[in-house]
Amino acid sequence: MKKLVLYGLIFSVLLNIFQYMYSTKKFNFDENRAEKFKVKMTDSIAKIVAEKEEGDYFSLAYDEKAQDYLEDYDVQKLMPQVKEKLMDLNSNPTGNKLIPYDNMVINKVRFLNHRWIIADFTGDSNWGEVILKYFLEKDGSVTFETAETVMYPQQ
Description:
alpha+beta, Hydrolase
């Protein structure tokens, strides 16, 4: 009986040592893995933020100099109003008059600064981009002028 108790005690001590070693190594492994994941996510977030800042460099919403030029206007309210007036030109049955191709309408608009807009346009089977100049008139109206267009080839 004493031998059985002694073997049981030795077995339980060995089992506890094994469990302790396993738990310690598992904890360290999981901690290292979590730290590597945090570093990877931090790098990814920093990269995404840098890419967004790079993309926003040419944007009226983030260009303080262009906003200073439009000091008489609230830029956050102005951009939707100008965009709406630009999109209203799509209602023409022959397409938007600012695009020199027939049956083309503007889909997306991005304000580059206080003077230029870049827009994406599509038609029946073609698409392209256009750079527009826009002017805010004293009477509150907006006039547009096409600066350049690019039509992409059909695929």
